Amino acid sequence: MKTSWHRIIAIARKEFLHILHDPRSLVVIFILPTFQLIMFGYALDMEIKNVDLAVLDYSRSPISQRLIQTFDGSPFFRVRHFTGSPAELETVFLQRKARAVLMIHSDFARDVQRRPATPVQIIVDAVDPNAATLIRSYCLQVINEFNRRYGGESRLPFDVEKAIWFNPDLKSAYFFVPGLLALILIMLCALLTSVTITREKEMGTLEQILVSPVQAREIIVGKVIPYILISMIIGALILSIGIFLFGVPFEGSYTLLVLFSFIYIITALSIGLMISTVAHTQQVALMMAQMATLLPTIILSGFIFPISSMPAPLQWLSNIVPAKYYLKIVRGIMLKGNTFDQLLEPAGVLLLMALVLFFIARRRFSLHL
Amino acid sequence: MNSRKISVQTRDLTKRFGRFTAVNRVSLQVYEGEIFGFLGANGAGKTTLIRMLTGLLKPSEGEGFVAGYDIWRQAEAIKRHIGYMSQRFSLYEDLTAEENLTFYGGIYGLNRRDIENRKRELFAHVGLQPFANQMTRDLPLGFKQRLALACALLHDPPIVFLDEPTSGVDPRARRNFWNLIYQTAQLGKTVFVTTHFMDEAEYCHRVGIMHMGKIIALGAPGRLKQKYRKSTMQDVFIELHRLSEEQA
Amino acid sequence: MQPIWYLIKKEFKQVFRTREMLSIIFIAPMIQMLVLGFAISTEVKNVSLIIADFDRSRISREILQAFEHTDRFRVVGYETSYRGIETAIHRWHAQMAIIIPADFGRNLQRGLQPEVQVIVDGLDGNTAGVALGYASGIFQRFGEVWLQQRAVARAAAASPPGHRVVVEDRLWYNLDLKPEQYMIPGIVVVLVTIISMMLSAMSLVREKEIGTLEQLIVTPLKRYQLVLGKILPFLILTFIELGIVLMAAQLIFGIRIAGSYTLLAGLAFLYLFATLGLGILISTITHTQQQAMFVSWFFIVFMILMSGFFVPIENMPGVLQKVTYINPMRYFMYIMREIFQKGSSLQFLLKDWLPMTAFGLVIFTFSVLKFQKRLT
Questions:
Q1: Structural domain for A59, as ranges
Q2: In what order do the strands lie in the sheet with B6-17?
Q3: Which of A313, C61, C184, C242 has an alpha carbon within 20 to 30 A of C77's alpha carbon?
């Protein structure tokens, strides 16, 4: 039997009506991602600033004061004076009053005059190892600064010129806007499609459709069209917030991004369709869709955690996460101004994934209804 | 008949959803041990009325008493004295028939021995023994409805509300179900049943016919047939419809 | 109490009869734990590096060896032109490039203050920042060693080079700076939150959608009984899961717990009241499972982000830091990490468990009140 566009449109229209008749869902679909994006925009700053530093100054000398001032003057530290005894130090960490403690012993002023190297002690709360590493290096920087200013330390015999490309201020918006685009698109598509078919199964309305002359592929295409449109609109929404509110640049071609986003959306929808052939209830479908998309996209796509730092099996596993390729595409087009030929590799893999997933979903779909 | 005790009583009971009036000033009395049939086309307001009487919906206006309790203020007290079978099958499909009954027995606060006894009695009463351990989703619709009735009778309530209990089942199953309703009434229970099958109206002691939220006729089926000079309730119903259409 | 008991039994029967639900509740978290545990190291390693050495002197080779011999960097190529570097970074082949200009070694020895160049792809701001830090460190160390050697070579001339203050630093609690020690307890919190909220958010709305709630509402069951009957089964399930995940944390990742299990379990109980209450609240305000799913997804993302799980709360702007105080996960995240690593006690965690419990009680009461035993 030939594919009938009339039937496809009938199904697509019905699906649209479902969505439009339920304003709550519509609000949820559109408002929540926007809200999330804005929240991410302001919260996702990985750089540590304003570390609370407790100071135990037994020297109480002009030079120790100067050292403390150097710490206080740096953007990294906020000095908190500590008056207790060293035995009570642990309570500073237990009550989380400070992340690090600077101890200056009583002979500090004398030693600085006489000895070539005078130690000060710094104790770091290493519960968060990342922060601890940073705090240590901040301390070194501050001490180096102090030595240069007061100790007659000579500077390095050469300079290091640093150039940061594409994102000179290391703004986090540059990397989370593409990341969130990838995340929200895949979650919406997978969740929406997985449920739409399972719901009809659960409610018994699918039988009604199946006894009509409509074909499996027509059901699939008809059900998927509205969600492609919705996803495209949401994608545009996210992009415009990123560009206008967070000032993320757009270097490349819009057409290219739309084209590749379409491939990504098809991949995501196929995942949803596959889940709907396996799951019998909406509850199961929703939970499966959530698990297949949320964590893999956040964790294994390079969104937040660099893939190159992971152990080999996970690096291998990350190859089957569609968002990994899409992220490269979005970041590449938006920020690097990548052209079609520069993105052939990620786009090719994504296309292959979309085709394979869609084919399997379609096969399973006609077999399991 | 008026000497008998009243089970359900309403005066000018009204329910509006926005601008739409689903139930319009309904006044009626139902007596103990009576099978009271509520007739009407789909959307006539039967389900809304039942939902107000069972405490599922708050009325907009009017009075109502069920088993002597006020539906405005004592909805929770009413719930202990009624059984309810909803229009849509609403037991757990993923529990067995027997587990469903045990569950509701527990919810109604029966003790373990009572639950076992009631289960045995009710399975016998509705003829479900062979299917007790089957998953509810695998039961034929007729048996699901018997199970729902058993569930409504579990805590031995004096009044049961059955909302379209026979929709969707074959004539023989419907006949069997009505036999069950009779047996239930013989135990002294008041049965408040809605239906849109006019032949079923013949089995009721008294019927109320509803149209567009209003009661347009109330009385024993024999009396109504006499009054409108028709031989079946079906014809009475059509006649009433014609009259009210003319009025409008 | 009896009706609650029957509700709990029913809920368990339904869960244990659905194989998919069982695997979602018990197997999926294990897998997530494994993947997350190994993936989330905030350590940056193997940054792909490209090197352009226009100097080719002994000194430049010495510098570059330092880059080749650390697992922070992975040298992916040697370029001989700026153009090549540009292409490599554009095509995602390398994330960082180091350029040592011609005559660097000679100019260094003449004291001409030459310049090396580091280019980094700043798209992944975090990695870029950390990688730059590593590179600076390597250059710094090289420079210091070089200065010292020269000082020694000049045969202890007049005086030692000034007076310096040096840092003696000590680390407490996580001596080896193992990221797992920090992240795994956090992951446990996240997993427990996801499962408890999803289960409770879906369960009531599911009954609404398939119509079984109507039958429950016409029973004399009290509101609080119904809500408790919905919460308790999931409380138990989540506790079982908590046990499994904690066991996995110790067996697979070798995390040791410094504090008391009893304290942890007790505070987890208080925390779960908040998440389960929130789940129930979601299911009372939504009409379909799909909506419930979306809303709880939103809450979960919000809670994870605002909990300090991977973005430290101190880094957030002031307003958002205040917002974290209404996030129950924030408190439990601290509790978990502090108990695991510092062995903290009830007294020191007061400012966490007190607001957390208050939140739980409020949300639970609110969801009971919000839940109407009527159809709308």
A1: 51-150
A2: B20-31, B6-17, B61-66, B69-70
A3: A313
Residue B56 and residue C374: Cβ atoms within 8 Å?
A: yes
A165, part of any domain: no
- In this structure, are A98 and A194 located in the same domain? no
Dihedral of the alpha carbons of A349, A353, A359, A360, in degrees to the nearest 10: 140
Domain that holds residue C195: 2-40+176-370
C35 lies in the same domain as C116: no
Residues A38 and A59 in one domain: no
Unique residue bearing structure tokens 């009054």: B227
Name the minimum distance, in Å, from the CA of C24 to any CA of chain B: 18
Q: Do C6 and B106 touch (CB under 8 A)?
A: yes
Residue A368 has pLDDT above 60, yes or no: no
Please give the backbone phi and psi of residue A77, each rounded to the nearest 5 degrees, phi first. Answer: -120, 150
How many domains does one find in chain A?
2
Question: Could you tell me the maximum CA-CA distance found in chain A, to the nearest angstrom?
Answer: 97
Contact between chains at A28 and C298 (C-beta distance less than 8 A): yes
Please give the model's pTM, rounded to 2 decimal places. Answer: 0.80
Chain B within 8 Å of C2 (Cβ-Cβ)? yes
Option in C14, C219, C375 nearest B107 (CB): C219
Residue C158 has pLDDT above 50, yes or no: no
Residues of A in contact with C123 (CB under 8 A): 166-167, 174-175, 331, 335-336
Q: Does C136 touch chain A (CB under 8 A)?
A: yes
C91 touches chain A (CB under 8 A): yes
What would the pLDDT profile of B58-114 be if each residue is shown by its tens digit?
899 999 999 999 999 988 889 889 999 988 888 998 889 999 999 998 888 888 899
Question: Reduced to 3 states, what is the DSSP secondary structure of residue C53?
Answer: strand
Give the contacts of B164 (CB within 8 A, at least 6 positions apart): B46, B47, B87, B194, B195, B196
Instruction: Inform me whether the C-beta atom of residue C42 falls under 8 Å from chain A C-beta atoms.
Output: yes
Residue A325 has pLDDT above 60, yes or no: yes
Whether residue A127 and residue C174 make contact (CB cut-off 8 A), yes or no, is yes
Which of C209, C212, C222 to mutate to test binding with chain B, by most B CBs within 10 Å of its CB? C212
Is C159 domain-assigned? no
Band of pLDDT at residue A294, cut at 50, 70 and 90: confident
Q: Which fold has domain B1-81+159-168+178-248?
A: Rossmann fold (3.40.50)
Q: Classify residue A20: in a domain, yes or no.
A: yes
- Using an 8 Å Cβ cutoff, are B195 and B234 in contact? no
Residue C74 sits in a domain whose CATH number is 3.40.1710.10
CB-based burial of residue B81 (10 Å sphere; 0-12 exposed, 13-18 middle, 19+ buried)?
middle
C296-338 tens-digit pLDDT: 888 888 898 889 887 788 777 778 888 899 999 999 999 999 9
- Show which of C119, C153, C187 is a domain's final residue: C153
Is A160 a member of any domain? no
> What is Dmax (Cα atoms) for chain C?
98
Q: Under 8 Å CB-to-CB from A334, ≥6 apart: which residues?
A: A177, A178, A248, A249, A250, A251, A252, A257
Say how far apart CA C100 and CA C296 lie, in whole Å: 53
Q: Which residues of C touch A19 (CB under 8 A)?
A: none
Residue B1's pLDDT is what?
46
Dist CA C184 CA C257 (whole Å):
11
Is C221 part of the contact surface with chain B (CB cutoff 8 Å)? yes
Q: Show me where the domains of chain B are located.
A: 1-81+159-168+178-248, 86-156
Mean pLDDT calculated for residue range C257-267: 92
Same domain? For C11 and C149 the reply is no
Nearest to A24 among C206, C289, C291 (CB): C291
Q: What pLDDT, on a 0 to 100 scale, did the predictor assign at position C316?
A: 79
Same domain, A86 and A193: no
Which residues in A lie closer than 8 A to residue C133 (C-beta atoms)? Answer: 137
Instruction: Write the pLDDT tens digit of every residue in A187-225.
Output: 888 888 888 888 887 777 777 777 667 777 788 888 888
Q: What is the pLDDT of residues A26-35, one digit of tens each?
A: 777 788 778 8
Is there a single domain that holds both residue C197 and residue C148?
Answer: no
